[in-house]
Amino acid sequence: MQIIKFGGSSVGSAIRILAVKDIIKDKLSQDPLCLVVVSALSGTTDLLKKSAEFAVQKKGFSEFVEEIKNKHFNCIADLGIDNPALILRIQEEINNLNEKLVSISLLQDLTNKTLDQLLCLGEIFSSEIVASLLTKFDMPAEAINAREIIKTDNSYSCGIVDFKLSNELIIKRFEAETGVKVITGFVAESAEGNLITLGRGGSDYTASIIGAALNAKVIEIWTDVDGMYTANPATVSKAFPQAHLTFAEAMELSHFGAKVIYPPSIQPAMIKNIPILIKNSFNPSALGTEISNNKQASRQSICGITSIGQTSLLRLEGSGLVGVSGTASRLFATLATSKINVILITQASSEHTICFAVQPDQAFRAKETVDQEFALEIQSNLINPLVIDRDLSIISIVGENMRTVPGTAGKMFNALGNNGININAIAQGSSEINISAVIAQKDEDKALKVLHEEFFFPDHKTVNAFLIGTGLIGEELIKQIKNHSDTLATEHGHQVRVIGLANSRKMILAEAGIKPTELSLELLLAGQDSNLDEIRKFIVSCNLPNSLIVDCTASDEIASHYQSFLESKISVVTPNKKAQSTDYLQYLELQRVAAKRGASFIYETSVGAGLPVISSLKDLIKSGDQIQRIEAVLSGTLSFIFNSFDGSKSFSAVVLDAQKAGFTEPDPRDDLNGLDVARKILILARECGANLNLKDVVIENLVPENCRATNSTAEFFQLLQESDSYFLDKLSTAQKRNCKLCYIASFADGQAKVELKEVDQDHPFYNLSGSDNIISFTSDRYKLRPLVVKGPGAGAAVTAAGVFADIIRLAGH
Questions:
Q1: Do β-strands 2-6 and 304-317 pair in parallel, antiparallel, or remain unpaired?
Q2: Do residues 698 and 678 lie in contact, with contact meaning Cβ atoms separated by under 8 Å?
Q3: Fewest Cβ atoms nearer than 10 Å: which of 86, 202, 514, 583?
Q4: 499-556 pLDDT per residue, tens
Q5: pLDDT at residue 34 greater than cutoff 90
């Protein structure tokens, strides 16, 4: 005996019904009796419900009736079924449908009893059509109305099954049968003879009831997906079907939003320990998902992530709840009396608050009911009126293995927190098979993606980056992303997904992502006008996990928007020094906002380009070390200039060589004035906890007075020659002392300085060469021999590599 159920999508068209016919033919070759339960043709039940709703509102319903009629007659024609009796039966039912809708319209009354009588027509029609098609292909089939064999109470739209009577009728009906029986899903009958439906999704329930009654070996549910997925594949692209689930896991997943199987369907099969197999009629070769009592010990701690959108959270709170027995029973009894379904319950250990979640359309009725029940306590100010929080979702992780794997809850909440997703309420059952959290509905999709990656692909992380700035560093970063994205994904499990690109003029917004091979500056030619507020709104609207701005500019304007990005839970990665060296209170505010909103503010490359300067300093401080002094050569440009200035050329000629080599800013005075170096030492000082502003840094300006007000670089170089003798004298004096000149930034005793100094042969900066940077940390632990970080401190490629490393670091966070 074979028990097979086909959902609405599986019988949604003539092509799909022909595929169903082939599946049934294969099953019939394996067993002489094949019981086939069918849903209505896809969309039919919705059309029937809409026609009834329009009728009771005195709106036109005839178009729905016509669509239902055409849907079924066209299907019969497309299948080539020559059965006048079938067409006559459907036409008669369509006529009856129309008459009932007219009555509903005249009376303006639609009861659940009448609605059940209408909604069952879809299953009746589909069972007749499938049976006729099978008979046409030499598989004589009988259409059976399930009301003959499944009996319930009088609970319209959600009948409670009388299993004792139903089992007797099912066994009696099929004990000596062979061939194919096509049975209406969803439909049942009360003891009084009233037609009752089993709830939306009830066709699965029908199959399970019949399979359990007959002790079937397996109950097959054929749908339009390859099984029960680890998450909704429409939202989470990396979701995949699980080969095995336990009954308990499937029950939890289906209760909390997974729509592959109707939750009550699991119970009859579970009682009889009959496996349920979820199969895809669109892809019969797929293995599907087996639901049984078999546990898979080797699987991850969880088996799936699911959610319920559009949820309302209701809070009953007040001092009158504390220590008062029976409050919870009163609360939930009054909700049950009003037939309000509670999805989730949580209570604080203080007993001051009870939270519960319901469907939004039941929230107001729940408030009225509860406020009425506790009217005296509310009047006495012992309990507050019920509070409703709307626009929420419930997200749940499910898995039997989490019982034996410590840290699962922490992993869940940490992943949500790192992506700026706030949790309104938490619930976990004593069975430890489900952990649920109530979050803002706008964060639902993001949370699903975040948790799926965290639990099923812990070594594979994706960051969604918006690149701003297409100068030397930005252009080089684009090249590195293009050249290394494949290696990064295959060897390290990280993906940098570029969702936008902008410069000061144009921007490209690409929620679906820009393929690395297509990432280029030419893209911006077709872009729209650049707008930082629009970029922020775009990233917020995408609501993607691990979203970040990569600012490869030196722009004050972009830096001024960091706070709004961080407030919107968008991380910032940048070599731009402006925000970290702005007003001290604003600097602290950026750090506070980043921490509060769960966003990262990473500016490693703002000091020392690709060198690990800030991270090394932070590690020293976090480990309890005390910084006594910092000395550093922090300008690759000035390092190159003074390492090259040996007297063989004039100072102005060396500066000109540096400009031609691309080491300086377009205007070399921006390097020589020391302001850039001052910003860098200020950043390091602030990392040490110093309350300093840029004006507090003592700066030796290397631009001679006569050169500061020139209007062009050409004029600057001409006037700089007049100061060559000054710099040559400085050099000569140093050389006589066996010293060399270095432009050094320092921080000690709460003071920061930037100055041109002589260093002798014993100084760690003496052997500095090229454009290298060097940073020396003297601390309690590194007192006699300072910790030194040295390496290339200038150049677009080095800086871009550092930015790229920061992005990847965020991916692994």
A1: unpaired
A2: no
A3: 583
A4: 999 999 999 999 889 988 888 888 888 889 999 999 999 999 988 888 999 999 999 9
A5: yes
Q: Is 231 exposed, middle or buried (0-12, 13-18, 19+ CB in 10 A)?
A: buried
- Per the DSSP assignment, residues forming a β-bridge with 548 are 465, 571
Helix (H/G/I), strand (E/B), else coil: 451: helix
Encoded amino acid at 766, one letter? Y
pLDDT at 297: 56
Catalytic residue among 71, 411, 461, 680: 680
pLDDT at residue number 117: 94
The H or E element containing residue 53 is helix 44-56
CA distance 61 to 758: 93
Q: What is the Cβ-side half-sphere exposure of residue 155, based on CA atoms within 13 angstroms?
A: 11
Task: Supply 435's token pair.
Answer: 């952990």
Average pLDDT value for residue range 345-366? 85
Q: Are strands 698-699 and 33-38 parallel, antiparallel or unpaired?
A: unpaired
Tell me how long the chain is: 813
Number of H helices, E strands in the chain: 28, 30
Is 680 annotated as catalytic? Answer: yes
Q: Distance (Å, rounded) from C-alpha 147 to C-alpha 202? A: 13
Structural tokens at position 614: 């800030």
| pLDDT surpassing 70 at residue 430 | no
SS3 content of the chain, % helix, strand, coil (to 5): 45, 20, 35
pTM (2 d.p.): 0.75
Phi, psi of 340 (to 5 degrees): -100, 120
Q: How far apart are CA 69 and CA 72, in angstroms?
A: 6
Closest CA to 682 of 762, 751, 783: 751
386, 466 in Cβ contact below 8 A? no
Tokens, residue 774: 């060097």
- Given a contact cutoff of 8 angstroms between Cβ atoms, the answer to whether 289 and 219 are in contact is no
Whole-angstrom distance, CA of residue 608 vs CA of residue 615: 11
Instruction: Give dist(CA 356, CA 175) in Å, integer.
Output: 47
For strands 434-440 and 344-347, give the pairing: unpaired
Q: Which of 208, 184, 54 is nearest to 127 (CA)?
A: 184
pLDDT at 417 over 90: no
- Label each residue of 264-300 as H, E or C: HHHHHHHHHCCCEEEEECCCCCCCCEEEECCCCCCCC
Gap between the Cα atoms of 640 and 649, Å rounded: 14
Q: Which two tokens mark 329?
A: 């029973």
Using CA atoms, how far apart are residues 322 and 350, in angstroms rounded to an integer?
A: 7
Candidates 813, 787, 812; CA nearest to 611 is: 787
- 290: Cβ contacts below 8 Å, ≥ 6 apart: 243, 244, 245, 275, 276, 277, 278
